[in-house]
Design goal:
Strand order of the largest sheet: 1-2
Largest sheet: 2 strands, antiparallel
Helix content: over 70%
Shape: globular
Length: 108
């Protein structure tokens, strides 16, 4: 969780920033989150994940997707990769439903 907090702190944006700075910070955060997903940082074992870490990564990715249209496809690709690494029986179904609701709307 310390790494995730560090990424969040180092990639903060503010309304005082110019657009190029905001874009740079957003891309930096997306790259860090992508590296975290690629490394399966939140994976404790083959069938156990750190829910707090995974939820933080998913929430951050969904927030980037919501706030920055130009990152939508990249965020979706990272989310798909993240979901492929977890066991659907244990965790993936609920997480997939939550992410699907954010990405494509209510799936009920």
């Amino acid at each position: 969780m310390k790494l995730l907090k560090f990424v969040t702190e180092e990639t903060k944006t503010s309304k005082m920033m110019k657009q190029p700075e905001i874009h740079s910070q957003t891309i930096a955060k997306l790259m860090c989150l992508t590296a975290i997903v690629e490394s399966q940082f939140y994976q404790i074992s083959n069938n156990q994940i750190n829910h707090d870490a995974f939820n933080k990564v998913a929430n951050d990715l969904l927030q980037i997707r919501k706030d920055h249209e130009y990152c939508r496809e990249s965020v979706q690709a990272v989310l798909v990769k993240a979901l492929k690494t977890i066991q659907p029986v244990n965790h993936g179904a609920k997480l997939l439903e939550r992410i699907a609701n954010e990405v494509i709307g209510d799936v009920k």
